[in-house]
Specification:
This protein has 2 domains: 2-248 and 454-477, Aldehyde Dehydrogenase, Chain A, domain 1; 253-443, Aldehyde Dehydrogenase, Chain A, domain 2. The model has no long low-confidence stretch (mean pLDDT 98). It has 478 residues and is α/β, with parallel strands linked by helices. β18 (367-370), α12 (377-380) and β19 (387-393) form a beta-alpha-beta unit. α2 (62-78) crosses α6 and α3 packs across α4 (95-116). The strands form 7 sheets. The protein has a 7-stranded mixed beta sheet, sandwiched between helices. The chain contains 15 helices and 25 strands. Helix content is 40%, strand content 23%. Bound molecules: nicotinamide-adenine-dinucleotide. Nicotinamide-adenine-dinucleotide is lined by residues 145-149, 154, 172, 174-175, 205-206, 209-210, 213, 224-226, 229, 232-233, 247-250, 281, 382, 384, 410, 450, 454-455.
Length: 478
């Protein structure tokens, strides 16, 4: 049985509680590893290490910090196969997807911020008799807390800018998918990251996570996860005046107008609905279709969805792997039942799948539901699984109203070839990210994040480096 340890001051350690938790391979439903279940003493120890390392790391030259981050990127790239396999076993996602997206992106995150820090500058404002210049300093010890859906991808998306900016870090991956965070600590050792600069604490959110939120020395928390936990963290951390970046849930509309490039839209919509088993915060789970295209889209979409092979994540032709955990599998099933109770008609899918030899894994057919009111619970609450609804609309105004009817506001996908319509709809949808005639087309320099219950703050590019630094303005009169 593999054992996953904390990483404190460059050492791999059990929790001081001596407790560990099962880690389950969702494709089989079997326990395959044990992970440390940390407590507040472990967080205190991680803080002591990070605090002691801060002076050295924050005074390390930009060139040297950049060199180490880019070395980590290179090592991730060179271990692509091992890391992708670990991610697939831990999370249930297709192996090809981890190889194509998750692990390359984890490497890009370190490479991007290793380079970005060499270009990061602060402002100066001059007057005839004075000059103001702004110094941006690292904050100190910061925390990064990440979810299970894109484990290494999102873990590194936070850690890389925090380290690049000169902070030392306490990072907590999801207890559901801790493996690649553990493997990353070995890569950091190999890359020569000084001891204590990155510390990784494993375990349950309400134990080690709460200890992080409550820790008086931690200056900032960058959190990605559910809206419920984000609100909880904010309630603890805000009165302690910690800086907070919250990337939370979504219920994203995919608005399809009749004047779109139909073939491209159809192909991308299958992907934006079911990639990673629908467990991407940016998946378009509410498909809104202009009525004159509605019947054609329904039938063409269902034909394509029925072709998606569900099964063993390690098989090359698998398009939909296992859901991440039994609890999540049951949650998604409960939403399919709710959709039926709310009057929805299941056009395809809706059933549990039991692939041969993997009968205890957590598989659900990609599911397409119609005939639901646009503002019912199925259409407004985050399901975060392979489930989408299709709803017709008649006018642009109606599409915008439907798009904005949830408490969430992360992203929106828009399909039209009309430039003016693109401008109007993009301006009026309450989201942080709009994709027009594309989906998940990411440029790491752009601000990433949501509005309403989808979060506070932006990640990406210089936004992230600004979050992880504190500006101090200095005014000199002469
Ligand atoms: P979650 O909120 O349950 O857990 C996220 C992380 O927070 C985990 O590491 C967990 O251990 C930790 N945590 C849990 N309770 C905590 C507490 N009391 N204090 C501190 N930390 C605590 O989310 P999840 O189920 O792992 O992930 C799915 C959610 O993440 C979905 O809602 C999804 O939309 C969201 N998500 C958002 C984005 C984005 O960029 N906006 C990206 C990916 C996922």
């Amino acid at each position: 049985m593999v054992e996953i340890f904390n990483y404190i001051n460059g050492e791999h350690l059990k929790s001081t509680s001596n407790e560990s938790m099962d880690v389950i391979n969702p494709s089989t439903g079997e326990v395959y590893a044990q992970v440390a279940n940390s407590n507040s003493t472990d967080v205190d120890n991680a803080y002591a290490a990070a605090n002691a390392a801060f002076e050295g790391w924050s005074n390390t030259s930009i060139t040297e910090r950049s060199r180490i981050l880019i070395r980590i990127a290179d090592l991730i790239e060179s271990q692509l196969d091992t890391l992708a396999m670990a991610e697939s076993v831990d999370n249930g996602k297709p192996l090809w997807l981890a190889k194509k997206v998750d692990i390359p992106r984890a490497s890009s995150n370190f490479r991007f911020f290793g380079n970005a820090i060499t270009q990061f500058a602060s402002e100066s404002h001059s007057n005839p008799n004075s000059i103001n210049y702004t110094v941006r300093s690292p904050l100190g010890v910061v925390a990064c807390i990440s979810p299970w859906n894109l484990p290494l991808y999102l873990f590194t998306w936070k850690i890389a800018p925090a380290l690049a900016a000169g902070n030392t870090v306490i990072a907590k991956p999801s207890e559901v998918t801790p493996m690649t965070a553990y493997l990353l600590t070995k890569i950091c050792d190999e890359a020569g990251l000084p001891k204590g600069v990155l510390n990784v604490i494993h375990g349950q959110g309400h134990r080690s996570g709460d200890a992080i939120s409550n820790h008086k020395g931690i200056k900032a928390i960058s959190f990605t996860g559910s809206t419920k936990v984000g609100a909880h963290i904010a309630s603890i951390a805000a009165p302690k005046f910690k800086k907070l970046s919250l990337e939370l849930g979504g219920k994203n509309p995919n608005i399809i107008f009749a004047d779109c490039d139909y073939d491209k839209m159809l192909k991308v919509t299958v992907n934006s609905s079911f990639a990673n088993q629908g467990q991407i915060c940016l998946c378009g789970s509410r498909i809104l279709v202009e009525r004159k295209l509605y019947d054609k889209f329904r039938s063409d979409f269902v034909v394509k969805v029925k072709h998606l092979k569900v099964g063993n994540p390690l098989a090359e032709d698998t398009k939909v792997g296992a859901l991440v955990s039994k609890a999540h599998f049951e949650k998604v099933q409960s939403y399919i039942e709710l959709a039926k109770e709310e009057g929805g008609k299941i056009l395809c899918g809706g059933n549990v799948v039991k692939p041969e030899g993997l009968e205890n894994g957590y598989y659900i057919e990609p599911t397409v539901i119609v005939d639901l009111p646009y503002n019912c619970r199925t259409n407004t609450e985050e399901i975060f699984g392979p489930v989408v609804t299709i709803t017709p609309f008649d006018t642009e105004e109606e599409a915008i109203q439907m798009a904005n009817c949830t408490d969430y506001g992360l992203s929106c996908t828009l399909w039209t070839t009309d430039l003016n319509k693109t401008q109007r709809v993009s301006k009026n949808v309450d989201v942080g990210i709009v994709w027009v005639n594309t989906w998940l087309n990411r440029d790491l320099r752009t601000p990433f994040g949501g509005v309403k219950n989808s979060g506070v703050g932006r990640e990406g590019g210089f936004e992230a480096l600004k979050f992880f630094t504190e500006p101090k303005n200095i005014c000199i009169e002469f």
